[in-house]
Design brief:
single chain; alpha+beta; five-stranded antiparallel sheet; 20 strands; binds uridine-diphosphate-2(N-acetylglucosaminyl) butyric acid
Length: 354
């Protein structure tokens, strides 16, 4: 394993925010990870915090503990009967490399999730989703290390309790289980998942006949759509969608629809609730393309807070988050919840908040 002390997180998260971490460990196997919870890890600063590709993480200051980074790579086809396959991928495998591999094999199931940054393990924790698919739809089991008993434990898909940007690992299991590998059920028979209108319309205009589509065709189309809407992490730092899309009661939706702001985009959600795109609420509060010092709201997708100059500080990001939440609450009575995870941190002595 590789241990790094007092590191800058700027190049280790897609946001590119400058903040320090007391320690970072790259581990390459289950045994190495386990050993960190015994004498080998005794002198490592606490708390321990598992990190994936750093693509959904917002450092809120200097992190005093140890970031545990999985370098468990690789994959294995456990079964393949020609129609469907069970594939196990290591938690540290880059998500999009796994998607590319599956598409090239002609396997359906994860193609709508193309080009999402991050690793396989984090995808299973966050239940990443896009264009009408979620990782949880294809996950059959998740193998973890239980850091309390130091034994491995495998969770079935049902035990993972997947919901919109939700899982057992983000909820009840948080802090106790670290993902080692994820097993997916992928199929050659299923065909494309076309529930997301813009994707379906784009495929129809590009290919006409949807019967002969391949997973690679869908992947290329998803990649093209993402490139028009979302910043390329290599060019503009961000954590992707900064907020979840909120679900509100019917009454609240009716009140917003009666405000005279035109058609309010909305989708049915669980429990009779109505999901309203956070991007629409944020845009209507005037934030689209807004700048506050080094940070801003992406002009093509206001759900994304960007590191506009590359010099953003944790205090600036948190101040903009607060400003957006307060404005949306005041105007629409809707509480926005960040979907990007806050890495607990201590603000440096220099006061960065505005
Ligand atoms: N909209 C606006 N103004 C805009 C952009 C969007 O009002 O400038 C409204 C429109 O009504 C649009 C709606 O927002 O129809 C939805 O926009 P979009 O399809 O871009 O998706 P989203 O709901 O904003 C979610 C995910 C994205 C994912 C896309 C595509 C969340 C938090 N985000 O965004 O995920 O790529 O759908 O499926 O659910 C991520 O998690 O990092 C991420 C990028």
């Amino acid at each position: 394993m590789d241990i790094f002390r007092d590191i800058d997180l700027r190049d280790r998260t897609t946001f590119g925010i400058s903040a320090r971490a007391a320690c970072w460990v790259d581990y390459h196997s289950e045994d190495e990870l386990r050993s960190l919870f015994g004498p080998d890890g005794a002198d490592l600063p606490r708390p321990f915090f598992p990190i994936g590709g750093g693509s959904n993480l917002v450092p809120t200051g200097d992190f005093p503990g140890t970031l545990l980074h999985s370098c468990i790579r690789g994959g294995e086809v456990l079964e393949d009967d020609g129609d469907a396959a069970l594939v196990e991928a290591g938690a540290g495998e880059p998500w999009d490399e796994f998607v590319l591999w599956a598409c090239r094999k002609g396997l359906w199931g994860v193609e709508n999730l193309s080009l999402i940054p991050g690793d396989v393990g984090a995808a299973a924790v966050q239940n990443i989703g896009a264009y009408g698919s979620e990782a949880g739809d294809a996950i059959v089991s998740v193998r973890c290390l239980d850091v309390k008993t130091l034994s491995p434990r495998t969770f079935t898909g049902a035990e993972c309790a997947y919901g919109y940007r939700e899982s057992f690992f983000k909820g009840e299991g948080k802090g106790r289980y670290i993902v080692l590998s994820v097993t997916f059920h992928l199929s050659r028979e299923n065909g494309p998942t076309l529930g997301y209108k813009h994707l379906k319309d784009t495929l129809i205009s590009k290919y006409g006949d949807l019967e002969s589509l391949t997973p690679c065709d869908v992947r290329e189309t998803v990649i093209a759509i993402r490139r028009t809407k979302l910043p390329d992490p290599a060019e503009i730092g961000s954590a992707g969608s900064y907020f979840r899309n909120p679900c509100v009661g019917e009454d609240r939706y009716e009140a917003i629809a009666a405000m005279g702001l035109g058609d309010v985009p909305h989708f049915p959600a669980e429990g009779g609730l109505v999901k309203i795109p956070a991007a629409w609420l944020i845009e209507k509060c005037g934030f689209k393309g807004a700048r506050r010092g080094n940070v801003g709201v992406y002009e093509k997708q206001p759900l994304v807070i960007i590191n506009a100059t590359g010099e953003a500080t944790p205090g600036e990001v948190l101040a903009l988050e607060r400003e957006i939440c307060e404005a949306v609450k005041a105007r629409f009575g809707v509480t926005l919840i960040p979907e990007a995870e806050h890495l607990p941190g201590v603000q440096p002595t220099l006061n960065q908040s505005k």
